[in-house]
Structure formats: C-alpha cells, structure tokens
Amino acid sequence: MSQHITITGGAGFLGSHLCDHLVAQGHDVLCVDNYFTGQRANIRQLLGNSHFEVLRHDVTFPLYVETDQIYNLACPASPIHYQFDPVQTTKTSVHGAINMLGLAKRVKARILQASTSEVYGDPEVHPQVEEYWGRVNPIGPRSCYDEGKRCAETLFFDYQRQHDLDIKVVRIFNTYGPRMAENDGRVVSNFIVQALKGEDITVYGDGTQTRSFCYVDDMIEGFVAMMATEKGFTGPLNLGNPGEYTIGELAETIVSMCGTRSRVVYHPLPQDDPRQRCPDITLAREKLGWEPKVQLHDGLKETIEYFRRLAD
Ligand SMILES: NC(=O)c1ccc[n+]([C@@H]2O[C@H](COP(=O)([O-])OP(=O)(O)OC[C@H]3O[C@@H](n4cnc5c(N)ncnc54)[C@H](O)[C@@H]3O)[C@@H](O)[C@H]2O)c1
Questions:
Q1: Cis peptide leading into 236, omega within 30 of 0?
Q2: Is-contact 81 35, C-beta < 8 A?
Q3: Which residues of the chain register pLDDT less than 70?
Q4: Of these residues, 71, 120, 145, 176, which one is catalytic?
Q5: What are phi and psi of 35, to 5 degrees?
Q6: Domain 4-180+214-241+278-293 class in CATH
Q7: What are the residues facing 204 on neighbouring strands?
Q8: β-strand 167-172 against 237-239: which pairing, if any?
Q9: Which of 63, 179, 197, 200 is 20 to 30 A removed from 91 (C-alpha atoms)?
Q10: Following CA atoms 33, 35, 38, 39 in sequence, which dihedral angle do they give, to the nearest 10 degrees?
C-alpha cells in the first residue's frame, strides 16, 4: 500500500538512494534537508515526479507535516563534516531526534533512526553485537557525533517506553557507493578520488586496521526491511557487511581498479580512530532475512564509474 514517507537527510548520500527506492515502489516521499552536506544534484532525477516533494528545513526546528513513516537520516556522517561545527552536530542528532519523535508522536507515524556503528566507539568486542554497550570517549573530537547518536538512541527508546511510539533503530556500518561526497575524507571516496587524479593514496596508520564496507543498495534494502517489521521489534539492529578488509588492501584494490600509477603513502592515525570495526549481523539475518549481496569489487566498480563521470 502506498504510504506518505518523510526522509530527513534525503538529499544526502544514503537519503537520496532511499528516496529513489521508495518513489520507485510507488510511495509519496517528502525529502527534508538543509543541504549542509546533501546536494540537490543527488535528487535531481526525482524533481518533477508527482510522488516526490522537497522541503528545505533544519531538523533542529520542529516540523509539522502529515506522514505515515519517518526515516531520520539527517546528520553529517563524515568526520570532516561533523567536526566542522560540532555543536550543530550534537544539536542535529539530539534536537533533531526530539523534533522528529515529536512529529511521530503527533501523527502516530512509525519512525526509524539511522544510528551508527560509532555508538560502539573503539570496541573491545569483535565483531560487534547489538548487546555490546560500547567504549566511547565522551570528550574527544569525535564525541559530538558518537555521543549525539547515542543520546538519539536513548530518546528513541524513552519515547517508546513513555509514549508507546513505534520505533526502529538501525546501527549502520561503513557504507559506500555513488553520491558519496567527493571531499569528505571517507576512505572509499578519498581513495577513489586520489587514484583517479593519479595522486598519492593517503592511508592513516600502517594500513593494517580493518574496516567492513557495505554497498549502498544493500543498506537501503536493510532500511526498508527493518521499517516493515512488526510493531514492537525496535532493534537496535546492526546493518553492514561483515566481510573485513585492511585499509592497505582497499587502497591497493582501488589503485589497480582505477588503473593509475598512484602510490600508497602512510600518515599518522587520527585521535580515537578505531583499529577494527565489523558488524555481527546475526539479528538482521534472523529478523529480516537480510544480508549484503553486492561484492566489494562490484560495488567499487559502480562507485569508481560515478566518480569518473563527476570528473568528466
Ligand atoms: N554512510 C555511512 O557509512 C554511515 C554510517 C553510519 C551512519 N550513517 C548515518 O546515516 C545517515 C546518512 O548518512 P550519509 O552517509 O548519507 O551522510 P550525508 O552527509 O550524505 O547525509 C546527511 C544528510 O543530512 C542533511 N543534514 C545534516 N544536518 C541537517 C539538519 N540539521 N537538518 C536537515 N538536514 C540535515 C545533510 O544536508 C545531508 O543531506 C546519517 O545520520 C549518518 O549518521 C551513515
């Protein structure tokens, strides 16, 4: 059945793919974004579609619309962007959650929060299961993001306990694909942009730290499957790709796929950068029947093509 769906952060990387997906499914989508890190170009293909509407709005202010479902994705996601104005980052997560939960309460909408693997901080448990409470520095340069997202989760669960709200919380692990911002310092986009320009590939640390990489299409299917679960299944639920790669391996793969002569150079690791991050997705497999399908090589191919087109 066609629903009215609100997506905050809808002009961003993940949000714009979610808009595409839900409009294609026949839903009426309202994209809410203040364009801090999102871009109109990401949603250009939907402008003019009668099932799609855009509202320039900052989620730190209340929003009054009619809606059946809310995906709350608004928040800068890369360290460069979330550390640019850390106070605003915390406000976006915390005030944004309060405002969107308030909206969900008023109109009795189901609401999904885009949380993050960063709530686990620099984990002592590997791979990370949802029961793990995390190891987060509350006063460091990454705290505005990590603690903001943790507080947003707290608000979601308090609204559920106090007001019986129909909530869903997903913890997103590193996701990549077309429409990642070009200069946001995230590892996949960084490496691809550097490789396509034939520049040195900068690896922070010795390159042995591992990460998992989930392709955007898999992630969007996970969001939608989570939204469709029965009331009362709240999560938190990990979504990500459990395949682990070292950063050094990723750099080498991208250099070879881009066919350039870039060298891989090593720089000191930034503060609080986790050594290892990998999701345990047992719960997502059990509850959603979901697991990532796109192989790293195939996802990288699409992403490299996107950045090549941008450069043309
Ligand atoms: N991409 C990942 O690997 C990843 C990992 C973990 C969590 N997440 C979460 O997923 C969500 C989307 O991430 P993304 O990668 O698409 O990032 P993104 O920066 O591309 O998208 C975020 C969007 O939110 C918008 N926004 C920021 N502050 C806002 C505000 N105050 N009001 C309205 N809009 C605002 C931005 O303009 C942008 O369009 C974020 O909440 C992020 O924390 C992403």
A1: yes
A2: no
A3: 271-274
A4: 145
A5: 60, 30
A6: alpha beta
A7: 267
A8: parallel
A9: 179
A10: 110
pLDDT per residue as tens digits for the range 97-126:
999 999 999 999 999 999 999 999 988 998
How far is residue 24's CA from residue 256's CA, in Å, rounded to a whole number?
Answer: 35
Max Cα–Cα distance, the chain, nearest Å: 58
Looking at ligand 1, which atom is closest to the CA of residue 92? Answer: 31
DSSP string, 92-124: HHHHHHHHHHHHHHHHT-EEEEEEEGGGGBS-S
Which whole-number Å values give the CA distances from 103 to 42, 65, 113, 160, 243, in the listed order?
26, 8, 13, 13, 37
List ligand 1's pocket residues with C-beta within 6 A.
8-9, 11-15, 33-38, 58-60, 73-77, 92, 96, 114, 116, 172, 174-175, 181
CA distance 163 to 102: 10
What's the 143 CA to ligand 1 centre distance in angstroms?
16
Please check whether residue 199 is in contact with residue 262, taking contact to mean a CB–CB distance below 8 angstroms: yes
Distance CA(52)–CA(149), nearest Å, equals 28
Residue identified by tokens 């997502």 is 284
What is the pLDDT, as a whole number, of residue 216? Answer: 98
Q: What is the rounded CA–CA span in Å between residue 13 and residue 92?
A: 17
Query: Residue 184's pLDDT is what?
Result: 85
CB burial of 180-211 (b: ≥16 within 10 Å; e: otherwise) equals bbeebebbbbbbbbbbbeeeebebbbebebbb
